[in-house]
Q: What sequence folds into this?
């Protein structure tokens, strides 16, 4: 697997003597070092497929060099981060080359670092310059960005496009249409900022902190005003058609927005979900995820066991108030999460906000689990009511309890929905389809940017893999 890029926390960079460029680039303090070599060899593709250019009538196999850019969140390892690393691993195993440039919001400590993150979040020329250093060395065919805030900023997108590199952006959240990135204000859905009215974020204090509300609104408004995303992203990847339509509603060109589900490879063995022993939830424990609704439903179903996997800001609060039939497991490792899916009878997604296309749905369905989800956002696209799961009214614990009881008691329905979920997962979230579609997106982005597409048949050297990695050590002093 492509090794992640190691980052220095703020304190370590600021105290490191002789850090080249530390004084000059004091606002972000990115510093480059030489890495250790990556593990040679690599696993064989799971399905024997390589990056066949599906969707490309000319066919053929293409080598691609991808530079991924991702600002990791302050919270524990989540689905978005897993997608980044899983995509890098996929590209390497299918004959391509990938490097990751990562920073972490955990670096932001103290008021000076917060001020630097605020200013740099609007436009960070120092981050752009350091990313360009990696671009010049690695010479990627495509730059694939994920989350850029607050330590990268749109500056890296502008710089890469000016350098002639096509840029693809996966829309994991709603940061292009909402300063908060979740279309929530005071716990309720809010579309006031959609289409260029970011001042509502300030007037309504959507962050619950005036300074944060101003900062979030400012960076969104400036990026929109100068068209840094609209004019410099070659292709946008939406996880659902709902997410695509939301971006079109905000004024983006629908021809440059493609839909690609998250990848969630299925385990080899199928299972009977009706043998599961609990009702499961996996995700971040925060208000917008609807965990309160799930706990209220569990309180109505005291005879059924519930298990909740995940961490977050409300973990301690839930720990104190959950009924006796609910177990809080905390943050699980990847292996433990897979075991969690294998023991569950169903998975519940009780979100209160517009979900773009959570990875956990694909993972649960690939484990033959029927999913009970809120009828909101992109969830009805991923979970077909009475087809691969059940839908319920968002925020309604009684409706949720009714659907849980129905699926628990009707074992035939549970088995039927679980089998259909597995088939849908193989088709929509499988590694083979994902790899082919992703390569088609990269190829299209390169063609749109006028960048030559290298095929193995015409360029045997292009297929050679370089396993040496560059580690970007980053910090803010």
A:
């Amino acid at each position: 697997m492509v090794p992640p890029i190691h980052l220095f926390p703020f304190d370590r960079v600021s105290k490191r003597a002789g850090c080249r460029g530390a004084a000059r680039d004091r606002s972000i303090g990115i510093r480059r070092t030489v890495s250790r070599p990556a593990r040679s060899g690599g696993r064989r593709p799971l399905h024997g497929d390589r990056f066949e250019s599906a969707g490309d009538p000319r066919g053929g196999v293409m080598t691609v060099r991808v530079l991924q850019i991702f600002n990791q969140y302050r919270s524990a390892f989540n689905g978005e981060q897993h997608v980044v690393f899983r995509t890098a691993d996929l590209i390497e195993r299918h004959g391509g080359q990938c490097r990751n440039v990562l920073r972490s919001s955990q670096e932001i400590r103290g008021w000076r670092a917060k001020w630097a993150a605020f200013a740099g979040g609007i436009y960070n020329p120092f981050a752009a310059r350091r990313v360009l250093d990696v671009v010049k060395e690695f010479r990627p065919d495509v730059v694939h960005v994920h989350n850029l805030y607050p330590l990268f900023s749109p500056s890296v997108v502008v710089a890469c496009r000016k350098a002639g590199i096509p840029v693809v952006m996966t829309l994991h959240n709603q940061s292009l249409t909402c300063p908060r990135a979740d279309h929530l204000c005071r716990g309720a859905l809010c579309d006031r900022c959609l289409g260029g009215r970011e001042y509502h974020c300030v007037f309504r204090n959507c962050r619950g902190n005036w300074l944060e509300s101003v900062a979030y609104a400012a960076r969104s408004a400036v990026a929109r005003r100068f068209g840094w995303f609209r004019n410099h992203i070659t292709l946008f990847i939406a996880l659902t058609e709902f997410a695509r339509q939301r971006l079109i509603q905000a004024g983006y060109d629908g021809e440059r927005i493609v839909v690609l589900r998250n990848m969630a490879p299925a385990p080899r063995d199928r299972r009977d979900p009706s043998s599961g022993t609990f009702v499961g939830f996996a995700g971040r424990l925060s208000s917008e995820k609807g965990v309160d609704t799930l706990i209220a439903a569990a309180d109505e179903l005291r005879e059924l066991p519930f298990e909740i996997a995940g961490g977050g800001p409300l973990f301690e609060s839930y720990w104190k108030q959950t009924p006796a039939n609910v177990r809080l497991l905390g943050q699980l490792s990847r292996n433990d999460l897979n075991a969690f899916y294998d023991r569950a009878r169903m998975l519940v997604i009780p979100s209160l906000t517009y979900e773009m296309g959570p990875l956990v749905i694909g993972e649960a369905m690939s484990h033959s689990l029927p999913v009970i989800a809120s009828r909101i956002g992109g969830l009805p696209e991923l979970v077909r009511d009475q087809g691969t799961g059940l839908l319920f009214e968002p925020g309604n614990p009684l409706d949720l309890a009714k659907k849980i009881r129905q699926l628990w008691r009707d074992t035939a329905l549970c088995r039927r929905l679980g089998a259909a979920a597995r088939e849908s997962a193989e088709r929509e979230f499988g590694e083979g389809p994902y790899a082919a579609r992703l390569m088609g997106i990269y190829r299209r982005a390169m063609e749109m940017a006028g960048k030559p597409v290298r095929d193995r048949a015409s360029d045997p050297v292009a297929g050679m893999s370089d396993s040496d990695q560059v580690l970007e050590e980053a910090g803010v002093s």
Remarks:
- The radius of gyration is 22 Å.
